[in-house]
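Weekly sync, protein design subgroup
Attendees: M.S., D.O., the rotation student, P.L. (late)

Item 1: inverse folding check
M.S. brought a backbone from last month's batch and wanted to see whether the design step gives back something sensible before we order anything. D.O. pointed out we never logged the input encoding, so this time it goes straight into the notes. Structure tokens as presented (682 positions):
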């Protein structure tokens, strides 16, 4: 919504400006007020947002805003009505800073705007620092593209450059980090000159450099798919119904699936189905939308640089002749309860009967044998029965009632009644506020110390103090705080308006809600940088020093209270800090050779890259130098033999496993023997 308003605002500003631009040219009369150099001017968006500026000297100028909370933007036009600059702080709700090269003797038009129609903020024009030139210090690792697949195979990985600024300073830049150069972002464009020559343009300010790529013949002869694990699914399972009443299957390529890429030079390279080879990933697609699948064998297509192979997918008929429900789930669902569903503003309660406690059913197979399943056989966390996934019907109701629930399992429908009942809760109260009632602008405050009371319709009540024993956090797309009160749970949500501004906290329990405004939030500060210490993939114990635009700093020590995602490469978590609940995530950055380059740490809307200094590997057989000998090392040797990859001197030394001072297929074979434990070393 906000991005749409921004686009609309820019269009309206341009329409207004272009209608008046003929009056704004070199030496012409201008009806707009003039911006003076190095003078602070107060701008009111409602009363006047268009100004002119005439530089006394040729040079780089910076037009910037000062203020908080208005999210301003600026457009700059030359005397011909062409837009030559625009700044909206990359949509981050910050003050803008627009640097442009201007010339004396010309009058430029400046249009200011903001997404608060009553915005009033200060602007100023001072000397700016521009980007004058660029020197490529390291070309991309691979400066070739494959004929017919130029866009798929062009890669700028490895590109490094040094930019020279108008103040005499220089800035080093790399394609991986994509760091800004002064007030400018580095733009990269890919195209061809119409004669088969492909290139990438590097553009920043007035700096420009072009890198040409050599077109090579497609090295791939064919590809083959192999896998010991078959892809099998029961009819109308592991998928979803579309609006056209067709069922679409969500298949997974097994982990042991291998794509063998046969090269025209006679060598072959094996990769996993989802693995890239020389920066190019196999493309996997199917024809379900054109030809819906039924019972039988169908084929998924895997393609690599135009070569294709088929992956069989078998849809099995249901193995059950009949299904009998012995006992139904015992769970009743409370109308409006956020813990089991969602109540919209129109009073429609949406839920899934996911608690199958008490369910028992007996299936009869086609051969006449039977098997009985109880709730002990149902894995409700992973939605599996006997190791196979199941699905459940979803429902929308507008009042307490009984609906028919459906469990979809192996192509059969297991039906049972579900009761949606009225709540037993009368009201919720916060009878004692939390220990701290004012927080910095985070997701929301810490409710430790608050005393929460639930009043029931039968006249009884229960209360609890929010602390580490009763309070927990989880994330299902929006962070939620839960407080255990007696046998019930009070959930706390943050409510925001369409501009993303915090409005209030909302307490809910068993379909009863309450607005709580006892916690206030100070105005947000603009984060300009962060520095991370004690970085680990789970974030536990991580310390982040945050520097704000007002030059103040704050140390945030993260003690994670919940993980949304937590695996070997990525962690999404929340933590309680002195200023409330803050969100952070940590991502391992791995290069194409599997080396750990460092971590990307995100918090409070800012990213910090923490570099890891890896010492080069000295292990014979570890061709890529990541400290481990695996199939990628053998693959690199095969690629080098096929002239599809170039090994540096250190890689060649580590690749020479047979000691004959040359790289051959025997070196790759020895590595494969080592991986398979057929030899103990080289």
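Designed sequence read out in the meeting:
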């Amino acid at each position: 919504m906000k991005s749409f308003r921004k686009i609309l605002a820019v269009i309206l500003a341009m329409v207004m400006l272009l209608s008046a631009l003929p009056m704004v040219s070199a030496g012409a009369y201008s009806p707009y007020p003039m911006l003076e150099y190095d003078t602070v001017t107060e701008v009111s968006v409602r009363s006047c947002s268009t100004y002119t500026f005439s530089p006394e000297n040729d040079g780089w100028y910076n037009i910037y805003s000062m203020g908080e909370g208005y999210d301003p933007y600026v457009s700059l036009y030359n005397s011909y009505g062409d837009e030559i600059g625009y700044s909206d702080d990359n949509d981050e709700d910050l003050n803008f800073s627009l640097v442009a090269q201007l010339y004396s003797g010309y009058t430029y038009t400046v249009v200011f705007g903001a997404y608060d129609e009553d915005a009033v903020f200060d602007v100023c024009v001072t000397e700016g620092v521009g980007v004058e030139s660029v020197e490529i210090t390291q070309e991309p690792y691979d400066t070739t593209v494959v004929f017919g697949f130029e866009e798929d195979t062009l890669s700028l990985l490895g590109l490094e450059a040094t930019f020279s600024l108008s103040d005499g300073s220089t800035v080093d830049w790399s394609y991986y980090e994509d760091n800004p150069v002064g007030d400018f972002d580095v733009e990269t464009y890919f195209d061809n000159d119409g004669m088969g020559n492909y290139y990438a343009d590097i553009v920043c300010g007035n700096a420009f450099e072009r890198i040409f790529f050599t077109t090579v013949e497609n090295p791939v002869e064919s590809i083959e798919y192999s896998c010991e694990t078959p892809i099998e699914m029961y009819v109308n399972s592991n998928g979803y119904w579309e609006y056209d009443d067709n069922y679409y299957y969500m298949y997974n390529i097994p982990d042991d699936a291998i794509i063998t890429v046969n090269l025209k030079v006679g060598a072959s390279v094996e990769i996993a189905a989802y693995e890239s080879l020389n920066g190019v990933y196999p493309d996997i697609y199917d024809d379900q939308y054109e030809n819906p699948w039924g019972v039988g064998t169908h084929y998924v297509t895997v393609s690599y640089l135009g070569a294709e192979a088929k992956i069989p997918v078998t849809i099995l008929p249901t193995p059950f002749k009949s299904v009998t429900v012995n006992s139904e789930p015992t769970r009743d669902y409370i109308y409006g309860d956020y813990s089991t569903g969602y109540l919209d503003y129109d009073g429609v309660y949406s839920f899934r009967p996911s608690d199958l406690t008490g369910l028992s059913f007996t299936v009869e197979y086609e051969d006449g044998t039977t098997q009985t399943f109880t709730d002990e056989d149902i894995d409700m966390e992973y939605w599996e029965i006997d190791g196979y996934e199941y699905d459940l019907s979803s429902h929308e109701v507008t009042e307490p009632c009984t609906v028919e629930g459906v469990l979809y399992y192996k192509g059969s429908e297991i039906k049972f009644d579900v009761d949606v009942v009225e709540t037993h809760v009368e009201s919720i109260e916060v009878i004692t506020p939390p220990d701290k009632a004012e927080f910095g602008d985070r997701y929301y405050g810490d409710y430790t110390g608050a005393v929460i009371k639930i009043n029931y319709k039968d006249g009884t009540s229960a209360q609890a103090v929010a602390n580490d024993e009763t309070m927990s956090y989880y994330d299902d797309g929006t962070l939620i705080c839960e407080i255990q009160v007696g046998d019930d749970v009070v959930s706390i949500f943050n409510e925001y308006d369409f501009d993303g501004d915090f409005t209030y906290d909302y307490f809910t329990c068993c379909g009863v809600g309450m607005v709580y405004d006892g916690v206030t939030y100070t105005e947000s500060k603009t984060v300009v940088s962060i520095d991370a210490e004690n970085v680990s993939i789970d974030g536990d114990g991580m310390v982040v020093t945050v520097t704000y635009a007002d030059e103040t700093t704050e140390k945030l020590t993260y003690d994670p209270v919940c993980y949304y995602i937590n695996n070997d490469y990525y962690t999404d978590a929340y933590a309680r800090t002195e200023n409330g609940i803050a969100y952070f995530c940590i991502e391992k950055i791995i290069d194409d050779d599997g080396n750990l380059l460092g971590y990307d740490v995100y918090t409070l809307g800012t990213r910090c890259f923490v570099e890891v200094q890896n010492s080069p590997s000295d292990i014979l057989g570890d061709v890529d130098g990541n400290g481990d000998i695996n199939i990628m090392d053998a693959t690199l040797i095969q690629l080098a033999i096929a002239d599809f990859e170039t090994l540096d001197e250190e890689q060649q030394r580590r690749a020479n496993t047979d000691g004959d001072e040359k790289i051959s297929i025997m070196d790759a074979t020895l590595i494969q023997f080592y991986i398979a434990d057929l030899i103990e070393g080289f």
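Discussion: The first helix runs from residue 2 to 20. The first strand starts at residue 41 and ends at 44.
Action: P.L. to compare against the previous round before Friday.
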